[in-house]
Specification:
single chain, 341 residues, alpha+beta, 60s Ribosomal Protein L30, Chain: A, 2 domains, 7-stranded antiparallel sheet, 4-stranded mixed sheet, elongated
Length: 341
């Protein structure tokens, strides 16, 4: 009898181990399959062709006004209508799609969303705004492509400075962002907003498009010579390392063309004058502009140009081409001028 009990006990133990091993193997297979599916879903790129083409008329950019009793920007400005200064004819914006970020280029509008307390003193209601936009967008044939929060890992895939400069509606990690796409026969419209209850929100509207590039003339020795013959000088924007007098590779290419200019015209004498914008200390800017001019003079003399044909000057921000009132104008003021002696 004891022998029978011992045999039964061993058989049950063996069966139990086998069942556990099979169950473990089954769980591992299911887990592996789920992981594979998750990886496949997360790695599948967004395809605009999966969005149905709407037959609705979407109107003119930026297509949507703020909901009733809400406004874009400060309600006292532009009567809640889109401020033209917030519209860029071409820009790159990031949009959330299924928890990931993709970059889209085209005409953009970025703005805050505010409650118009002159008409309704109730707090900003994020659910009210969300549902109002959703109703309007879906009526135009739009499709929601994101309604979840982004992880910090996803945000870190894009340079933080790039997101800030774009004026994007991408919120911090952990906060929900709503993204919609409206696709018509001739337009691809992206709408994205994030909302903070009892506070405000931010919205981005983009009509996808291609950048119309401008003609860019190549800086050559012949172009410099033509400018000097016409005006007595040639204005160049030569790239140096930031706050240094070291030529960048493309700056060296321009220096080679100056060398070619002087080699082609043996009687030509030049004053090489460095200029900066007005950012920072004036004395530092003058020294920096002189150092950069001297860098060019040294490069030219090392490559065979007689030093008597050259003069270096550093003028700092004393002679701006434009008022230093914008980043664009400041960039134009950071220059080197070749002035005929």
């Amino acid at each position: 009898m004891k022998r029978v009990l011992i045999c039964l006990t061993l058989a049950f133990a063996i069966y139990s181990c086998g069942s556990k091993e099979k169950q473990q193997e089954s769980n591992e297979v299911v887990t592996t399959e789920n992981e594979t599916k998750t990886e496949e879903n997360s790695s599948t790129p967004f395809d605009i062709n999966t969005i149905p083409v709407s037959t609705q008329t979407v109107g003119v950019f930026p297509f949507l006004e703020a909901p009733e009793n809400y406004c874009y920007g400060y309600c006292s400005n532009w009567k809640g209508k889109p401020n033209p200064s917030d519209i860029k004819n071409f820009d790159k914006q990031y949009f959330a799609v299924n928890g990931e970020l993709i970059a889209i280029e085209g005409k953009t509008y970025n703005s805050t969303l505010e409650k118009n307390r002159q008409k309704d003193n109730a707090p900003f209601n994020s659910l009210e705004v969300e549902k109002s936009y959703e109703k309007a967008i879906l009526a135009l044939g739009g499709v929601k492509v994101n309604d979840q929060a982004l992880t910090q890992e996803t945000l870190d895939k894009v340079e933080k400075e790039e997101l800030l400069q774009s004026g994007s509606s991408i919120p911090p990690a952990g906060r929900k962002v709503n993204t919609y796409v409206i696709r018509t026969n001739d337009k691809e419209v992206w709408i994205q907003f994030n909302l903070l209850n009892e506070e405000s929100g931010r919205i981005t509207i983009l009509e996808k498009g291609d950048l119309k590039t401008l003609e860019v003339a190549t800086i050559t020795a012949d172009v410099m010579k033509a400018e000097i013959d016409k005006t007595g000088k040639s204005i160049l924007h030569i790239n140096f390392d930031t706050d240094k007098a070291t030529l960048k590779p493309d700056g060296k290419q321009v220096a080679d063309q100056i060398l070619q200019l002087l080699q082609n015209n043996p009687s030509l004498k030049l004053s090489i004058e460095g200029h900066t914008d007005n950012t920072g200390n004036a004395d530092h800017n003058k020294k920096l502009s002189l150092d950069r001019a001297n860098t060019l003079v040294s490069y030219l003399t090392i490559n065979g140009i007689d030093a008597s044909r050259l003069k270096a000057q550093g003028l700092g921000a004393d002679k701006p081409l434009n008022p230093n009132d914008s980043e664009t104008n400041k960039a134009k003021n950071r220059r080197v001028e070749l002035v005929k002696l």
